[in-house]
Amino acid sequence: MNLLDLLLRKRGLTGVLEIEVRDSNGQITKRQINNLVVDNAALQLVHALTAAPAGYKIDHMVLGDSVTDPAVTDLNVGNPLLSVEISQYEDVADHGLKCTAVLAADEGVGQTFKEIGLFMANNQMISRIGTAVFGSHTKEDNTTWTFNWTITLTPP
Amino acid sequence: MKGHVVLEITSVRDGRVVRRLENNNLFLTGGYHELRRVLKGDSTGGAGTITSLALGRGTSSPLAADTSLEVPVLTKDVDNVSYDDPNGKVIITTYLQSNEGNGFAFTEAGLLSAAGVLMARTTFAVPEIKTSEYRFTYTWTITAG
User: Fold this and answer.
1) Which of A5, A64, B94, B144 could form a disulfide with A77 if both were Cys (CB 3.0 to 4.6 A apart)?
2) For chain B, domain boundaries
3) In 3D, which of A128, A120, A118 has the Cα closest to residue A52?
4) Does B47 contact A at CB distance below 8 Å?
5) B93: closest CA among B136, B129, B58?
6) Selected residue of A39, A46, A94 to mutate for chain B interface (largest B Cβ count, 10 A)
């Protein structure tokens, strides 16, 4: 286990985002990137154990265009532009949960996105991916972007 | 998830803490299952949040796959929940009053979700017989990581 793994596990969570882009011809391109779990995630997880559960549902992703590097102290993406609701959940191995959100063909067209964050219903961010990893992508007409963000609750 | 449990035995006569036991817990597969239900908004059969303490007389070491106490005796609603936000901790306190659980030597404890799923378990090596002379206070601290 390397230092980065240790830091991520200290927050009780790891995460991977798969981005799938489908163009107007039905052609699909996929890529997979690691997220940064922010310190706030640990706080949200322990609250989720005992508080009224509605606020602790992971329910949306926020796309933005800030180029500021993510930091573990982040509470939001650098410059939010668009929120995408999570539409599907799937249990996966090792206490994992795959959250799927879809940016439809007519949404966000012409906008350039450089960062993304994963949020709970209480608007608390638990993970962020910055430009260095996310890249810079302009949403073209007639393309559908599917985000599959898999988080894993990590035993000590 | 990591947890630590402290049991304080207090004399109801003079309020003095006569004994203090502590042990780490094991956060169980059921605990991760319940937390995951919260994270995806699934409240089927009851919420996945911790609502009660279970006490029993089992002595076997906790295993991740445990789904119940070994020898369950009673269940008690949690009395108080507080948060140590700077350190990412939740502190769950449950009292066994002087008129509760008397005559039993409790050696194991667990946390249950509102759906009745065992989420964490611990054992205490030395059995403590509960009598009306004492109040038991279980303070369970859970930290993410």
Assistant:
1) A64
2) 2-143
3) A120
4) yes
5) B136
6) A46
Distance CA A104, CA A147 (A): 11
Show residues of chain B in contact with A57, CB under 8 Å: 38-41
Question: How near does any CA of chain B get to the CA of A83, in Å?
Answer: 18
Residue for token pair 């994963």: A118
Alpha helix locations (H) across chain B?
Answer: 29-39
Phi and psi angles of residue B94, each rounded to the nearest 5 degrees, phi first:
-135, 135
For A53, which of B48, B83, B119 is closest by C-beta distance? Answer: B48
Q: What angle do CA A31, A36, A37 make, to 5 degrees?
A: 125
- Could B1 and A155 be called an inter-chain contact, meaning their C-beta atoms sit closer than 8 Å? yes
| A59 touches B: beta carbon within 8 Å | yes
What are the sequence ranges of the domains in chain A?
Answer: 3-153
**Cα separation of B115 and A83, whole Å?**
32
Q: What is the pLDDT of residues A26-53, one digit of tens each?
A: 899 998 888 888 889 989 999 999 988 8
From the first residue on, what is the mean pLDDT of each consecutive set of 10 residues in chain A (156 residues)?
Answer: 46 84 89 86 93 93 95 94 97 93 96 96 94 92 94 75
pTM: 0.91
Strand order in the sheet with A96-103: A28-34, A13-22, A144-153, A96-103, A80-92, A58-64, A115-120, A125-129, A36-37
